[in-house]
Amino acid sequence: MTTDTRVLLLHSGDNIAIAAHELPAGTELNVAGSRVVLKQAVDIGHKFACKTIAKGAKIFKYRAPIGSATQDIAPGEYVHTHNLTSDYIPTYTFEKGKSFAG
Fold first, then answer.
1. Mind listing the pLDDT tens digit for each residue in 17-39?
2. Closest Cα partner for 23 from 3, 36, 38?
3. Which candidate, 7, 70, 75, places its Cα nearest to that of 43?
4. What is the pTM of this model?
5. Cα–Cα distance between 18 and 23 in angstroms, integer?
6. How many other C-beta atoms lie within 10 A of the C-beta of residue 29?
7. Which CATH number fits domain 7-86: 1.10.10.10, 2.60.40.10, 2.60.270.50, 2.30.130.110?
């Protein structure tokens, strides 16, 4: 199966891919033989879903689980702390109206 040269798919069992270039929203990519259209811009080195990921499902990078989805994630969606929680270290995010101090 072919994968677009603008992305890295580290293992065929991964459900995320990594941008090897700056990729604007709407970019169409071939990832392991599947067509993926990016919903948001993805910066170089950042992750996006290349398969459907259900809320609570493990997110795999290099076939190793790196965290769990905190919501359903569609193919082409940016994957980061807004929809992923780490299984290994605390995932720090700002809640609306709060800061680190409060």
1. 999 999 999 999 999 999 999 99
2. 38
3. 7
4. 0.84
5. 10
6. 22
7. 2.30.130.110
